[in-house]
Design a protein that fits this description.
Oligomer: single chain
Largest sheet: 6 strands, parallel
Radius of gyration: 21 Å
């Protein structure tokens, strides 16, 4: 069986990184991309991901090309889906990759790695994928035995072990275009926000990751003493926008600015990057804040804290498990209406936020793509 100890690859000219997951997962792949760029500055680094997550990496300066799998293909009929899958395989093979790094655990990613024709194909030795086909698709497999103890960033970086690369920078990163920054600033100016501000993302695609609307409104009222405007953000989903509207209706003091559903992912990144503080639940915007080095207060539970906490030293996590017993994350019905974060009281969240707002504001290097 191939292992991670028998790799002596030549310097790769073209590299393909595969990750087929959600938006937050894509942010947490950037330390791998950044280290590949550092060690192979002349290489072209491509990424294969789901189409809807492409905006997360669209402006990353180390990425040469983004290939996408559209999850809508399967709704277009088997014949059309197979045609598009075949076209993708042909496109990837024509790139003549020297190295494929497969961070995904789907069979589809293994088949793509195999069909790429790359001489070096590295994947994880997942317990659920211990089969002849998975071994055939990868000529080097990296252990996952210690993954339960590692953050997702650390898990991802471990796939570079066979390449014997010195990992000197473990930070995640998020980039956006100048036009995204301009659009975000324009929307803020329309709401008379011209100085420092606080961003709160109270929503998630899954309700069980959300805090109580009433407590969120009380938090916003409590932040009034900072004299900073509060900007609420959310995705375009109707339920998320309804939640934001409900929270605003419960606020007793100055109403927050509502930008829910008005920002693209890159524009949201620009707005978060300009914020004095980000407050939110376990979601992609939380990972954006960490990648952008924006101080962050994150409300968590019952997802796996060790694996998904914000990857930043400028973060404070309020864990629902410190206030009530939580179910095993692997047993959660993602469609449940129960909000497990309800166990988190208002007071420690407000205290954590005010501790950041009372600290002197350090100068920070903001990132934007040219």
């Amino acid at each position: 069986m191939p292992t991670c100890h028998d790799v002596t690859p030549a310097v790769p000219r073209k590299i393909l990184l595969i990750k087929l997951r959600h938006h937050g997962d894509m942010i947490l792949t950037t330390p791998v991309i950044n280290n590949l760029r550092q060690h192979y500055p002349a290489a072209e680094i491509d990424v294969l991901l789901y189409k809807e997550t492409a905006p997360i990496l669209a402006h990353h300066p180390a990425i040469a090309h983004i290939h996408v799998i559209d999850r809508q293909w399967k709704k277009q009929g088997l014949k059309r889906q197979l045609e598009q899958e075949y076209a993708l395989a042909q496109t990837l093979r024509a790139r003549h990759y020297d190295l494929v790094i497969n961070l995904a655990d789907q069979w589809r990613s293994a088949i793509v790695a195999l069909l790429s024709g790359a001489a070096q194909r590295i994947g994880f030795n997942y317990t659920k994928r211990r089969s002849f086909l998975w071994r055939l698709a990868h000529n080097h497999l990296v252990t996952t035995a210690n993954h339960a103890r590692l953050h997702t960033v650390e898990q991802n970086l471990s796939i570079l072990d066979p390449l014997n690369l010195a990992i000197t920078d473990r930070r995640s990163s998020m980039y956006y275009a100048a036009a995204d920054k301009a659009r975000g600033e324009a929307l803020l100016r329309e709401q008379q926000v011209t100085g420092d501000y606080i961003v709160i993302q109270p929503t998630s695609r899954w309700l069980y990751k959300c805090w109580d609307d009433a407590k969120m409104a009380q938090l916003i009222d409590g932040l009034a003493s900072s004299r900073l405007p509060v900007v609420l953000t959310a995705g375009p989903d109707k339920h998320e926008q309804e939640m934001v509207a409900h929270i605003i209706s419960l606020c007793r003091g100055v109403k927050p600015v509502n930008l829910a559903g008005q920002l693209s992912l890159a524009q949201l990144a620009a707005v978060i990057d300009g914020a004095r503080l980000f407050i939110g639940v376990d979601s992609a915007p939380m990972h954006m804040a960490a990648a952008l080095n924006t101080p962050c207060v994150a409300l968590f539970g019952p997802t796996k804290l060790q694996r998904w906490r914000p990857w930043s030293e400028k973060s404070t996590v309020l864990w629902a498990g410190d206030y009530a017993e939580l179910p095993d994350p692997d047993t959660i019905d993602t469609q449940t209406r129960q909000r497990y974060l309800s166990a988190i009281p208002l007071e420690p969240v407000l205290a954590a936020a005010m501790s950041y707002l009372s600290a002197p504001m350090p100068s920070a290097l903001r990132k934007s793509a040219p």
